[in-house]
């Protein structure tokens, strides 16, 4: 039998997963290899649930949202259980995964995911499965790559939301708080906040206080601007305050952040007496097709991942280090989040324009 490889998508979905699957399937087919796609993330490997990804199956995948393979960020393979906490996958599960990998006579497994998924992939690699990683997450919080795919699409969604809120906020002289995703990193909030003309950007990396936020609103009013756009990352928190979570903490998955937008809106309205509304963008940021930038990035990542297998380079993840895609050790990417530098170029750009970061 010829070469056969596997691929799976893990963690939260995001635009571009199918574009990676397509690039992998097409490049593998071109080499005469066969590709199996495991269903439902690592669970598919454990339960031997998979489908053949032949050339025909690649049709229409470039712009299709979600993942045709399905995904999971909980269950038997949950590796991340809290802020920075990684759980070891039980040995019997690692053993069974490896046995299935060998039974299918696979040469390697491509794992598409973020920090949690790649932490599992690394454990499988250390357990003897040849792994190649592809960095995915709208949060853009993975180390060792300048960008993860999905991020640009999420930012485009949040920027579009700000454009829309801008016109209605201005018409009604209202304050709007747009809550965006990003978990413990403020990349989506900062990029969309600057690109979408936000007036206040609240991110986890810069704890805020209400005096600063209200001072910005007052300053704008003095300039004859009676509306204000506040972008709040879901992980933003008040100085000396806690993360705002929605739903109870579950033992086998990360805490679900959410609700900071409503908290900020209520307090700002109380302090300013101005009508303050909240819009939670939620999973709109994860749904739908990828932007042009992400389509290209996914295609480059997918093709490069297949190349790494051809070179027998395992335990590596493809990464963007402009102008090239390169291979970095998975261990260089996981276990520490890449967050927005509070004094970096991005924040300085915002401050130069008069944007308040609430500090
Ligand atoms: O990691 C991607 C992400 O969308 C985060 O921004 C968000 O906190 C989380 O996933 C939401 O996950 P779920 O859809 O499981 O609630």
Low-confidence runs (pLDDT<50, min 5 residues)?
A: none
- Mean of all residue-level pLDDT scores: 95
Shape: elongated
Largest sheet, described in full? 7 strands, mixed
Can you count the helices? 11
The CATH architecture name of the largest domain reads 3-Layer(aba) Sandwich
Helical fraction: 25-40%
Overall tally of structural domains: 2
Percent of residues in beta strands?
A: 15-25%
How many strands appear in the DSSP assignment? 13
Provide the gyration radius in Å: 22 Å
According to CATH, the fold-level topology of the largest domain is Rossmann fold
Please specify the SSE layout and strand pairing.
Layout: E1 4-9, H1 17-30, E2 34-38, H2 42-46, E3 50-52, E4 80-82, E5 85-86, H3 91-103, E6 108-113, H4 115-126, E7 131-135, H5 151-172, E8 175-180, H6 187-195, E9 200-202, H7 210-222, E10 228-233, H8 260-272, E11 276-280, H9 292-310, E12 316-321, E13 324-329, H10 330-333, H11 345-352
Helix pairs in contact: 1-9, 5-6, 7-8
The protein binds 6-O-phosphono-beta-D-fructofuranose (F6P).
6-O-phosphono-beta-D-fructofuranose is lined by residues 12, 73, 114, 137-139, 181-183, 234, 256-257, 286.
What can you tell me about this protein's structure?
- The chain has 359 residues and is an alpha/beta fold.
- The protein folds into 2 domains: 4-149 and 289-332, 3-Layer(aba) Sandwich (Rossmann fold); 153-287 and 341-352, Rossmann fold, CATH 3.40.50.460.
- It has helices spanning 17-30, 42-46, 91-103, 115-126, 151-172, 187-195, 210-222, 260-272, 292-310, 330-333, 345-352; strands spanning 4-9, 34-38, 50-52, 80-82, 85-86, 108-113, 131-135, 175-180, 200-202, 228-233, 276-280, 316-321, 324-329.
- The strands form 3 sheets. Strands 3-2-1-6-7-12-13 form a 7-stranded mixed sheet, with helices on both faces.
- The mean pLDDT is 95.
- 6-O-phosphono-beta-D-fructofuranose (F6P) is lined by residues 12, 73, 114, 137-139, 181-183, 234, 256-257, 286.
